User: Fold this.
Amino acid sequence: MLPGVCARKTVLGNHCSAFIDSPYSRTGILYKNPIHADMLDAARQVKLVYIVNVVIDGNKRTVAAFAGDTATAHRKGCEFLSGYCTVQAKPADIVITTNGGAPMDQNVYQCVKGLTAAEATAKEGAIIIMCAALADGAGGDGFYRALKQCESPEALYREIQGIGQDETRPDQWEYQILSRILMKHKVIFVSEKENQRMIEDMKMIYAPDIKTALEIAHNIKGEDALLTVIPDGISVVVRS
Assistant:
């Protein structure tokens, strides 16, 4: 129901700055998650009584199905899936992540998802390295300009926090999350040379290959820095 068939204002309100700011608005968290709670409330208001959810494997084949009550069936599906996609990791000084390759690494906007997986296991001040082709560039002019034109990620985050729920802007949630990450971590993007200016405009560091990215990271964090590698940042829930 939400966001599927809701009005623009409702969808934007569901992605408001206060909801995104909650520490419970993270991958794999349902309890106390205001975004999830808002979606459940929308389902109740329209009296949605039955759902069918499926779990798919890496080859897009259905491996399990959960049907019935909106909240119960969804929760049971999440419990089943968590046993396969949740991993424990020590907080690291350097984290390498990806968006799982094409088509999900097509732009910076989509890659924020993989960055949140790295964020979940990164020490304060850690370096995050994202490897992505970025064939589609930034993924939206408004998203790009918000980062390019801001004084700093901190300033942009403060600005977003002052925006009310009924005034939420398109893509605001994505640059709010990226700003949050950049406030705590240096982000190095390994991508094609033509993306260098865009990456640097968005307050991140460009590297032509993983070797160069690691050299930059080790120069900052030291040669004995603890390293974590996340092969597919959008298909895993990281706990530390």
